[in-house]
Structures
1.
Amino acid sequence: MTNKVNIMTDPGADMLSVNQAVSLTIKTRRKDKKLSLDELSRRAGVSKGMLVEIEKGSANPSIAILCKIAAALSLSVADIVNVTAAPSAFLVKRPDMPVLWQGDSGGSARLLAGTRGPDMLELWRWEMYPGEKFTSSGHPSGTVELLHVEEGSLTLTVEQSELQVPEGNAAVARTDIPHGYANHSDRLLVFTMSVSERHS
């Protein structure tokens, strides 16, 4: 299974509009910081070809790639997909909560809300059907996740360690190293997750 960004309409953010927002935000921020594609590629650890495709709006990058680009541009993923806003308090309506991952059986990861980067906090809601899994090579240094299982049982893997998180329980994980989530049960898994990334 790939960890591709699939911005769905269920009834979340429109795929074309979110792809355009990602493209415009990255291109604008890169130019504001006077970074060439080569330099951003070096800083983010993402190929120049992928960056070109993202800026054209034709790529389908993984969540991990978006995290790397965001960190290199001193942004959060929420900044890139335009889930953030300027006021001290503001409403994020359901149509503005993009689905950034979809599993083979219809599971999804929806970014509910997020603060502006580079020190950022994000709130996610995941649904994974039996057999679905998500893996990541690791987020930027200092990233920590808090997870709470609402339904089912989560298998959380961090490097070589595996932790079972049953329904009603929570977990804390360092995720700047390889990690993953999986549903090895025979029922739907639903969990919420907050992601904290600090650069100070």
Note: The beta strands are 99-102, 108-114, 120-128, 133-136, 144-151, 153-158, 161-166, 170-174, 179-182, 189-197.
2.
Amino acid sequence: MFDKDNWQEIFATIKKNKLRTFLTSLGVGWGIFMLVIMLGAGNGLKNGVLKDFDGTATNSFFMWTQRTTKPYKGMKPGRDFDFNNGDAMALRQLKELAVVSPQNQLGGYQGGNNVIRGLKSGNYEVAGVYPNIAQISAVKITQGRFLNENDITFKRKVCVIGRAVKENLFKPEEKTLGDYVSINGVYFMVVGVSVPMGSGGQAEQEASRVVVPFTTFQNAFNYGDQVGWFAISSQPNISAAVAEEKVIALMKERHKIAPEDEQAIGHWNMEVQFKKMSGLFAGINMLIWVVGIGTLIAGIIGISNIMLIVVKERTKEIGVKRALGATPVSVMFQIILESVFLTAVAGYFGLVIGVGLLELINMALGADVPMFSNPTVDINVAIVSLSVLIGCGALAGLIPAQRAVSVLPVEALRSE
């Protein structure tokens, strides 16, 4: 492999046919360049979309009440009903569930309420939650603390405000923790400031949110034992879909809802959505590999064809080598080495340019495009791709090499 004469012959051939060598190598380089770009773009899209799942347990689901649509046990369809504290206690008895977190919100889902501090006010979501909601939807606290069990037990009038709430109601130099905000005439002491974990619209919604202890919410805003909805996660070894079926069946039984009524209880399963998105991107990734490998194969075939031309041009030279005692193996090695060299160099430059372009795109976009994030390629994938490409280069040179040694030395010397 390190024979000086072999390398001199390779470089002499390349120098003699610069344009042909460049165009041949371009096919291989373009193939791996496109593979890297497509993989990076696919990863960027995947990272951007799945970022919305950041901070939320993928084995979780959410459940709320709607109107019944079927008659049952003497009750007419179209009946309204509410979850209650008793439902929460019943759900906590199910062994399939890890976390049961009741929630309420003033004005219902995405409803806004005036939150006042001094002469400033803003329209924000006000929610009553349990501390264990952080086990389902992660909470990042930048100041102070999150709600705790003592807040629930003693019905403390405390709250955690989102970043947007703080920026609007408080000046940068003002102390936030320990101050008070008024919600519907009830004063709550700020004990923490949170920032969203995800991105996009959901993140903006979380940043404009005020959370208070669930028990305090029910007491302060006259909700009695009403529960707006539940955030629930299953045990690690239990599918969220299985747990969801048991939960809905239990709630239908408790609220006298027809088992076949699919509309009475609304629900949204994070596990199902996450699996759908993961499956979608697995399919996209497979398609990228099929297209990329097809492009690479086209480049490899080009290398093989050029090496056949090289062998034909050097038939007489090969005949002289054979006549002087060169073994078939040494002749084959020379041809394969040239093929591998062209493939490796072209592949390396295609890989470097592709990775460099992805880095430039990543730097240019930054965090400005929520649906596209960190379009990079795993270094192991890049190394494996280049290694496979070099192996293919060896195979591409194998047929021309066999062609070279199949010609008898006498016939080769007669070649013009």
Note: The CA atoms of residues 66 and 264 lie 5 Å apart.
3.
Amino acid sequence: MAEFPSAPPLAGARFIIIDDQRDLAENLREILEHDHATVAWAPSLADGVAAAQRGFDVALVDIRLPDGTGISLLPRLKAIDPLAAVVLITGHASIDDAIVAVRSGAYAYVLKPFDTPDLLTTAERAYEQVRLARRAVSLQAALERSEAALRTMVDAVEALLLVLDEGGHVVQANPAVTHATGVEAHTLVGMPFIERFVVAGEQEHMRRAVESVRHGTSGVSFEGRLQRNSPTGIEERIIRWRLSGLPTEHGYRVYASGLDMTETRALEQRTRLAEKLAAVGSVSAGLAHEIRNPLNAASLQLQLLQRRIEKLSDDERIRSPLALVSAELARLSRLVTDFLLFARPAALLAADRDLRVAVDQVVELERPLALQRGVELIANSPDTPVVVQHDPERIKQIVLNLVRNAVEASASGGHVDVTIERDGAGARITIRDHGSGIGPAHAQRIFEPFFTTKESGTGLGLAIVHSLVQRHGGTIEVRSSDGTEMVVTLPRHVP
């Protein structure tokens, strides 16, 4: 096999000869350039500094120079390039000079007259050391750039990336984990993740998953819930986890990646709810019309019967059943009206309007009724118009329903806050009470048709609210912490 000739050992090297003896310098230049080095000559200390500033790898410096000593020059050369090598040359050796040279960082201390092969070997070794040092620095810089790029990618990804030690404590976490837990990444380090953030009922399941990974099972996947502290209380995030493990020099590590499925699950729930609403709407429209006609006839006949009985008798035993029947017919009529409103809502008459007007009208209308129950209605809104496209009558219907629910949930002496805020290009209406709150099971169902916790409720009020909000292109969210908060978010334009 043919062998390729290797490059000369000094190929690409940059030398400076700092010596006031021209003949010696020319001799050294010839030797070094023969091995393909680039050589500059400086006859004085000042010229040597100027040459060094143009770049060098190895400096061959005479200890005695016209304007100073080579030893005094050595720190200045090291300051210009800490990785470069300095070889001191002298014809007047002394122990003291040698000690100072070594302490100052000289690579070698060569005596005159020197043997050319020995000096060349010293120069080659000095350059090799410089070359390796520069290579190490270059590799370190490349590694740091690679780590920075990887860190940027990890920080930018929306998935939760988490490293746990054998005890389940956080070793590393990316910003997505911070978003899901509400705790900064540097604070997370060292925390017992499962005990601190996984909801109580699912902690054992995650522990078993971690143990399974530690015992060799790869790619363990499961879905769980994290609890997150937020300004509005404790929230839960649904996370789809995938776990794997790896032994390291610091012990076994569990690597967890997670996808936040909270919004996806909420969307699935809204989709199921929309399907239910559509199914109920199509049935109730026809049913309500079939019921309304005989219901109106029965109400009229009952009123006629009541008037005739009042003329014939004052017996309360006769009047009381009739009053009960009348009340039940009225309740049935309200239910039918809600049916029709839900099944066949009127078209939206949406236009650019100040949202504060419709909301404030509801608050002023309901304030006296709330005060009768010992509840204060407090309105909070910006000083300037909050303009979004909306149908004011439908917005009133939404706010009226939510305000009445909030007042009913409040104890005497309490208060209900009705707040309007700008939300990006749109707006947000928040109705908050300080009652007993809504349990998680009920919170997931309150917008379903016919679901109610009230004895006399039809179960369609919040379903109608949900439908009207959706028709405006908005969303409604329920939060329960120290009471209940209903948050209606409306876009700038109705779709």
Note: The mean pLDDT is 83.
